[in-house]
Design brief:
The structure is a homodimer. Chain A is α/β, with parallel strands linked by helices. Chain A has one domain: 3-Layer(aba) Sandwich (Rossmann fold), CATH 3.40.50.720. Chain A contains 13 helices and 13 strands. In chain A, helix 4 packs across helix 6 (110-131), helix 6 runs parallel beside helix 7 and helix 10 crosses helix 13. Chain A starts with a helix and ends with a helix.
């Protein structure tokens, strides 16, 4: 699902870099990791997934439907140093997604967030340094490292003053990759992912993806609540564009660098809601004032400047929201019982 | 020792803010913490010190000579959440110095550094949030949060790309104080300390303070080795100026902000060495090429722009190197047997 379109747009020299290689995906049963796994299997890659399937996060074996027999799944925790040491041995690439997923939860679980989003990176980097110093690694960071947005489009030089512990620990992770590149020659890159959406996203609650949650509400003919006037800009990026960016960046990115990714168009929050309601053909919307607690996390308009990744890696964003959401809705209509 | 000169320069409204108050100093047996304790005792403050006296760090009961009976010392670890919760209850101010002290050691002990310089802050901030939300807290950060210096004098807006895990975790700490100020109203400030020197500094090895170590070499009539041509600028700040800055900033600083401190003059590394040899009246120097491992940590010239702290808190740097080093040498000549 979704993989063919994605694969058709990858250049031959890029896919050749993965063919026959060994890849470890931590958190590989989650939204982004599992979509990447589907793509890698199609590229003839030997994929191992490490996932703890922690109940509150988004990982699910359902996400591997169709490739269950083509990947090795290890049920284990990124904080298990011995296991991580073993799993990185002999790999060519590591995609590191294991982490606490929601910025909202990070407020109530500071130490859990530090462990999963901070220490987890240090564990995997130390493992590479000891056992696979030539392997390349990619870290899924977040646009939430920026905090309150001062000017858009946002370049990687924008100040990093995160408004959540989640954002603080993602920033910490990025600094580790820069440090290990500089001091030990570990080829790590960070990708600052904005608002992702697409098939295999957790849609059980509103905390991880607002797009997924709104799609669910619309499919259930519910009313979508918009805080404020819905005019804030967001960068909603479709999973195929993300997976392509991960592949381009782990191969072509410069060691130690952090890269924005973003969609090919500018959209407001209200436009996103309208597109979902139109695509689903159901649902309604209403406007509410901002609750106090949300305003502290409100970053203001976010639009990524993607010129750095385009220059360094040759990746380009491709999928417009209307097309991405259509594909997403089709997936969940077909697989509703697996994700609700 | 040194305290009278310092106290004479503090304005009455500042000292009044501390009189009769309860203060917790974590890492209070170390260089900066113990000098602060001497000043606070003189200001009629009820001081509690938490210190683990970890062997490899700079803490020592010797540093409390003269005020042993006037402070409470708790031998315990900053990572002991229950103990920290208990100690913050009822305090008015917390000065947080407990940490792994050396950027060099952080390379070989990544997890220890994360625990002491990262998690330790989260523990003390969570303790304040639960048990002393009105208390003010100051965090001793470092100029090493900046990494490679791009322009001098360095303002707080300079990019923060630390070259060591120590610097990365100090930056992490700063982000926590900003977050807890913003989200929970905890009045925390960070002070970015450049190269500190003065009485009560550990001089057993070269890893913590180059000034202290060079002073020891000169006192032992040894040759001081200078890597490169000694022309790099550094901001050597005397302990009295640091202690004054801590007092001014915890009272007058803005919650969540990080502040540079720095000395009243610009100096090169070579000037510093010459001043030590002159003041001690012994020792010699020689020039050597940079070893490869040191160059990776070499930040280039560092001179702090201190206009932000001067504007917000009214603190001013006061002590020139010639005067500070004279006081330091006198102290160690008198107390050599306690520190060698």
């Amino acid at each position: 699902m979704a993989t063919k379109q994605l694969l058709d747009h990858l250049p031959a020299e890029l896919t050749a870099a993965f063919k026959g290689k060994r890849v470890l995906i931590t958190g590989g049963l989650g939204f982004i990791g599992s979509n990447l796994a589907h793509a890698l299997v199609a590229l003839d890659v030997n994929v191992t997934i490490l996932d703890a399937l922690l109940e509150e996060y988004g990982g699910s074996n359902v996400n591997l439907r169709g490739i269950e027999d083509k990947v090795e799944v290890v049920n284990g925790n990124i904080l298990d140093e011995e296991l991580v040491n073993k799993l990185v041995t002999g790999v060519d690439f590591v995609f590191h997604f294991a982490g606490q997923v929601g910025y909202i939860d990070s407020k109530d679980k500071p130490f859990v967030d530090l462990d999963y989003n901070g220490r987890g990176n240090l564990i995997v980097l130390e493992a590479l340094r000891e056992h696979a110093p030539k392997a390349r690694i990619l870290f899924s960071s977040s646009r939430l490292v920026y905090g309150k947005i001062q000017t858009t489009p946002v370049t990687e030089e924008h100040p990093t003053e995160p408004l959540s512990l989640y954002g603080i620990h993602k920033l910490l992770g990025e600094k580790y990759y820069a440090y290990y590149a500089h001091n030990f020659g570990i080829h790590g890159v960070s990708v600052r992912i904005p608002n992702p959406y697409g098939p295999r996203q957790q849609v059980k609650h509103a905390k991880y993806s607002i797009v997924g949650w709104f799609m669910r509400l619309a499919m259930e003919k519910e009313t979508i609540q918009i805080f404020g006037d819905g005019s804030q800009e967001r960068d909603y990026i479709f999973i195929d564009d993300i997976v392509a960016a991960l592949l381009y960046t782990i191969v072509n990115g410069q060691a130690g660098e952090a890269y924005n990714i973003g969609s090919p168009e500018r959209m407001t929050f209200g436009d996103m809601v309208d597109a979902i309601i139109t695509t689903v053909g159901a649902g309604d919307k209403e406007y509410l004032p901002w609750p106090e607690d949300y305003e502290k996390n409100e970053t203001g308009d976010y639009v990524a400047d993607t010129s750095k990744i385009e220059l360094d890696t040759n990746w380009r964003p491709r999928v417009k929201f209307a097309d991405g959401i259509a594909e997403m809705v089709a997936y969940y209509k077909e697989n509703k019982e697996l994700y609700w």
